[in-house]
Protein 1
Amino acid sequence: MSNAEKRKKKTDRLFEIVILLQARPNLTSKDLAEHFGVTRRTIFRDLRSLSESGVPLTYGEDTGYEILEGYQLPPLMITAREAATLLVGLGFMKLQTDPTLQAEAEAVEVKIMNVLPQETRSFVSRLKDRTVLDPYWSSALKVDRESDGWWHKITEAVTTRNSLIIDYYVESRDEVTRRTVDPLGLVYYTDHWNLIAFDHLRGTIRNFRLDRIRKLHVSMSRFEAPEDFDLQDHVDRSQMSDEIHQVVIRFKQTVASTAVRVLPARIDNMDAHDAYVDIAFRFDNLHYLSNWLRRFGTDAEVIEPAELKGLVAEEARKVQDLYS
């Protein structure tokens, strides 16, 4: 381990000691040594370093170490790994289609970088230079300037309980309908956001893809969310609704691991064989799934349902007609 790595490891440990003592006062040097897997001598050196840096440590024979009440950690006292995790997460946010979301993720990244210690900032900068998040994503995005800022408007409506008036594109009927909806939560799937909302037109809770909202207006009207509504429970139960299709896809072994990794659904069952793997799951949008399966070509075969088989066959005929 290089000297720089040793210093970084010690710095990370010092940060965590402060956090530990604030969360669990009265720890002994033995407790800390066991927690970090180091010697008590190392812990004593660490505690001395903290005291010299201004952390108000106290010690009692019967109470162990603690930090005087009222002491606050400096802003963004985070480790290099934690900073890297935050910035990679912001990198994903910058891939979103909402330009406002992209710009604000960029602004947050700049603020974080500016207040990091030099050593941590250098570590994160090197990582950024050597990390690419989906190089083809941005060129494939269709950014609609009219939807600029919608994500934030929707999240604010979710928290303030303001109804929304939306013009929503219904793919199956190729038409746009106006809806008044009560926004209850947001769910991010593989490549898109879904708004979970009570639909006044249908009189039930439904899913609305954000990329199919054509116009959006935040109403001044407030609503009361159902007392028994739980977003995670709703998402889980929606996988059991009548609109969900039971799907089984047979993937060749050569692509099975990739399919498992990128499948836009929760896997219910996997049946592995020498040459292929049958993957069973539930899904609500067969048109989307048909398009998604294109990437696997002849390495994926639909076992069920019959409707999905028909959609895939229809797409295959279109491709054949195109090149015949």
Note: The chain is about 45% helix and 25% strand.
Protein 2
Amino acid sequence: MRFSIIIPMLLLISNLFAQNQTKKDSIAKQELKEVVIQNNKKSIEQKADRTIFSFSDQAHLNSGSLLEGLKKLPGLIVSDVAGMMYQGKQLEVYMDGRPTNMYSNELTSYLEGMPANAIEKIEIITQPGAEFPATSGGAIINIITSKNAKKYVSATYSNGYSFSKYTKSRHRFNNSILINAKNDWFGWQVQLGQNYNESFQKTIFKSTDLLLSDNYSDKKNKLYFIKTGLKFDIKNDRLLLNYDINTQANLADIAAFGYGFTANDNSKTNKLRNEVSVVYQKRFQNTAKKLDFSLDFNQNQIDFNLHPINQNAATLSNNSVQNYYQFKIDFTNEWHFLDKTKWSIGTLAERTDFETRNFDVVNLDYTRKTFSIYNELQSSYKSFDFIFGTRLESYEITGKTDTYTLNTFKRVRLFPNATIQYNLMKDIFINANYNQKISLPNTSALNPNNTNYQNPNVNFYGNPNLDPTLFDNYEIKLSAMEYFNIGYSWTNAQNQVISRIVSSNNSAANVSQNLPKMSIHHFTFGFPVPFMIFTKGIKKMLEYNFNPDEINFIYLYLENQKHIIEGLDSKGVTYFGFMAQIILPQKIKFTTNFNSSTTGGNYYYYQMNRPFYNQMDFTFSKKFLSNNLSASIVLNDVLNTNRQDLSGIGTPFTYQNKYDSRRIGFSINYKLPSKNKLAKEENILTKEQKEDRTLVK
């Protein structure tokens, strides 16, 4: 009965949104001897293994910080408690196809400082195949900043400003510029920018009869970044060179009081990140045959200090240095087996060195080495697509603290993955996937130092003794015309690393622990409704030829997530929301985003007492000067309802958090116009991950 209802629904969506399959309105990508021809971008693309969100053309996403834009994506959750999660899966964060190796509050601070108008698109890879490291865990988010170089000098300038009014006015502004060019021998690109951010945050730890801590933080964050790229053409081959640097200075004045204390502190965090990447792409007469060599290095340095106001003696003085090295080789070829078959094979070697200091005393010296090889087949036969792969990885983890030596961890393990997809008709498919992954404890969770905040009653700790987590991931989904999707996934996890609140003697601490066994179940549903279906009727609407990104519609989504933990009365949490687009007179686009959740459910050992991320945002945008100038006005958290209220399960304490989420601002994006519309475009900054695993083209 349910199947008989779903099929007519899919046919309706197919008829409605297939009308975008014209040469003028759709994205059409063709690869011909490394030349990419691309038309108008879709706001959302559903691939077999990932979802792609365009940022550069979506004013409601790129008008503020990257963190604010990510929070508006359906199904994506970002918080200091949950971390970054999509459809129930923890995300490993990549930037331009390379792992960032940033986690926890370090990652949140970086995303909050990076302007969203510097981002091209976001890929969320929910079914990472064998070519991705098994240490990616359940899913990957790839933040792509690179643009296309053209056979002429082109430039884009972006600017944004916003303010909030909580006790006093606080301001944010950012500026960035992108310049690139290409000739017959090489292409180059430079992207540089800055972000200044004033904000406040109020947090409370308390029980029914005891106030542990009431903190009020007044923050100022500054970020500067430079991204550079060179591409050299060597006959049919390509050499890509990239260097990125960003620096942050985060200051906070913190007034706190609670049981037995009153404090006024200053905190200062300085961060420096450098990254170098070299990629050589060997190409053959057979364009389906490719061989890539990649070498990456990145370094993250963090210095954190906390001291009482008007005193030089520091309460906390912690710093860390992380060096990450990676070398990999990827080979791809294609031959005629069944309909078509693509074979990929590769190897990867990486090393992470992590050192932490507390008042200049080394209290963690940690080294992790990984070596892996993979093999994957992608094939198509009639209406079926198949992916089968295996990845063999070996790990060696050693380390020591200032008082003892960590147990050496050595392991060799095989990780399989398999995907079967049945294509009902063009752009409508059913997909089933299984993959096994591992997650090694990130350096933020391992860090024994407090790099957040402490007072006599509240503290934050890492745990150098954490064990890796093993995942068995299962997923089945139905997708139609990019816009409709329904899916169910579940994960069985062993030694899941979690963050939880523990209490003792009228104090509380946030700590990292291994959970021996748990499972995560997740259901998701998304459905678009064009408004013209109510004004013109279905029959009349089918006569129109329209672009779904340029009509009035509402996109509804719902997801339910349940963490099942032994010994815990687990209850699910339902997240829901919508994104509505209305085209006003003068082609002004009005976009509304709303997100909320039910209460009473648990996220690991936290129980939600208030709706999670309960917020409504408005954006008005318009393009001028032949679409070269984009301007937008944004109102975030119009109703001022976004706040957290969580209970620490197993403790008498609750955690409450409020920040200046209600803001008003504007942004502009200006592209230097050019008369050369037929210039060849190639991506020179990065070797992006494979975008479409639907399989052989």
Note: Residues 22 and 401 are 62 Å apart (CA to CA).
Protein 3
Amino acid sequence: MDSSQPADRTVNVSALKALTHPLRIQLLNALSQFGPQTASVLAARLGESSGSTSYHLRQLAKHELVRELEGKGSARERWWERPPGALSLYSSEIAHDPGTRDVAAIVNREFSHNRAALLEDYMERGPHVLPDEWLEASVISTLNARLTVEQLAELSDELMRVSRELFEKYRPGANDNPDAKAVQIHLNTFPIIQGQFPEPPARKEKTP
């Protein structure tokens, strides 16, 4: 990775558990999508009270998942931002512990639900509310391939490298064009499980 690009972060178990509250994931998403905001602005955007968003922002800050924006705001009205860099919810520590693995699955499912909701909203309302040029500039595409695990890893690494290079100049906060809007880019590479991978044997319950 280029040293000028922000490093990705693999969350520890404590930070992972802090993300199990759905509102905290919504707060992370809103800061990622729309840039730095106050608790009041986030409350209005998410339909919550400012007291609730303020509390959950402070909890996220304890795990360095968000941070106060230096030089902006006041003691009464703090501005919050997402630290640069992507979050990874899986590590060997998490993957090999059934309890934390299940927690990671819950958090990933909430992130996935939020992504799917945005895409569904675009598919349903986009043709009615978006100008033609925005519709024509958008892409919804699915590609299928047959790959070995090594080829999948190579493809994933290359796609991430290219997307990071292209995305750098459009990173939230870097584009001050008044015509710019919040845009979300989805990139997924994964094996299709159904019909190809057997279910693992059920875990045996320990008896006292």
Note: The domain at 9-130 is CATH 1.10.10.10 (Arc Repressor Mutant, subunit A).
